[in-house]
């Protein structure tokens, strides 16, 4: 008999899911605010300083592009700002060169503007420019083509403004208000690793209970969670740039280097784990035998991720995470020696690969990690 709807016309389960979704969305928004609030502070300060330098120090009567360039340097990407700044300036110069040359040859007008933009972006593509460089080249070409008849000597001030804005943007993010690299990475890594561990635990329970639908829900959540991993990679890139170029953060180079390598391997572990969960679903749909050691192995892997998270936060050598990952491999090896189906053997293979990635994330070298996994699979460790 169907459940009675509540006063809003929705079933209680639907209302609970909506509340949970709203709560989760609020948490995600708060975490993003914590991560990116510093970007707003940096952009505001850089815009104000670049305006002052362009207008008051250099006497530029049209300083608008200086703060625009500063904000573009900071907001275009949380990481790779040095490269973005170079692209911005090169794009401006390229747009000016192409625009000036064509205006001298074909004049100004609607079709001439289209031709100028087309050739400016084509030139940017020829020099292997990214989207940022193409955007700046095309935007500058538009301004040159449309404003040259009414504004004299636009080219030099715009180039100077690009240089001023880009330089001040870098000054702000690397010297005046640099992010705290470790705090920023930990703030993003913490919920990401926690989510990873929870999904592994949930997939182990789905395997133990034979719950296909639950395994499918885990897989869907892991697909959505890929955005969190991408954000973590973006933040680590920004933090790495800071410790390489900011004098006040140079002392964090070694520690951040370990985080950067760890995040790279954890990203691989997550993607391999997604394949693992997909095969868990296939194992259950095909009614293959599931030895008790197999869900136990997946659970131990989830606990290894959880331990790695805790040991990273505590600044400890992640020895417990390594031992738990090897325990997962041993359990999977025992499962493989029992009655197991085709998809079950692939689950074991994916688990070993993910455990290898996790060992690499803890700082173990490539060959050593392979040897450790192989020995654990054979029951030697």
UniProtKB/TrEMBL annotation:
Which InterPro entries has this protein been placed in?
Memb_transporter_dom
Sorted alphabetically, the Gene Ontology cellular component annotations on this record are: membrane
Q: What is its main location?
A: membrane
Keywords, A to Z? Answer: Membrane, Transmembrane, Transmembrane helix
- Localization per record: Membrane
Which residue windows are transmembrane per the record? 36-58, 64-81, 88-111, 117-147, 159-179
Topology term for the membrane = Multi-pass membrane protein
Domain named Integral membrane bound transporter is located at: 52-172
What is the protein name stated in its UniProt record? Integral membrane bound transporter domain-containing protein
């Amino acid at each position: 008999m169907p459940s009675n709807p509540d006063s809003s016309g929705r079933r209680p389960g639907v209302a609970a899911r909506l509340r949970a979704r709203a709560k989760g969305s609020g948490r995600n928004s708060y975490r993003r605010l914590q991560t990116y609030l510093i970007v707003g502070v940096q952009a505001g300060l850089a815009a104000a300083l670049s305006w002052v330098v362009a207008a008051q120090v250099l006497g530029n009567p049209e300083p608008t592009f200086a703060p625009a360039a500063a904000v573009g340097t900071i907001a275009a990407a949380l990481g790779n700002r040095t490269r973005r700044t170079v692209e911005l300036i090169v794009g401006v110069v390229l747009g000016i060169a192409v625009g000036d040359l064509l205006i001298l040859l074909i004049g100004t007008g609607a079709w001439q503007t289209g031709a100028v933009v087309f050739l400016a972006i084509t030139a940017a593509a020829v020099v292997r420019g990214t989207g940022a460089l193409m955007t700046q080249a095309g935007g500058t070409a538009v301004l040159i083509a449309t404003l040259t008849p009414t504004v004299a000597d636009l080219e030099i001030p715009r180039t100077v403004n690009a240089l001023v804005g880009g330089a001040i943007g870098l000054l702000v993010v690397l010297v005046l208000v640099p992010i705290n690299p470790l705090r920023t990475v930990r703030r993003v890594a913490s919920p990401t690793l926690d989510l990873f561990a929870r999904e592994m635990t949930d997939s182990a329970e789905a395997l133990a209970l034979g719950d296909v639908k639950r395994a499918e829900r885990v897989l869907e959540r892991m697909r959505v969670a890929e955005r969190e991993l991408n954000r973590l990679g973006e933040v680590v890139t920004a933090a790495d740039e800071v410790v390489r170029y900011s004098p006040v953060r140079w002392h964090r180079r070694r520690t951040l280097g370990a985080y950067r390598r760890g995040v790279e391997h954890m990203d691989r572990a997550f993607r391999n784990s997604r394949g693992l969960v997909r095969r868990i679903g296939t194992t259950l749909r095909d009614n293959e035998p599931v030895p008790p050691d197999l869900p136990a192995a997946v659970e131990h892997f989830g606990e290894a991720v959880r331990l790695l998270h805790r040991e990273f936060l505590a600044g400890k050598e992640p020895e417990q995470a390594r031992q738990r990952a090897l325990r997962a491999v041993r359990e999977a090896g025992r499962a493989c020696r029992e009655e197991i189906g085709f998809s079950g053997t692939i689950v074991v293979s994916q688990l070993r690969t993910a455990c290898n990635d996790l060992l690499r994330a803890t700082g173990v070298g490539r060959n050593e990690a392979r040897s450790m996994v192989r020995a654990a699979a054979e029951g030697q460790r």
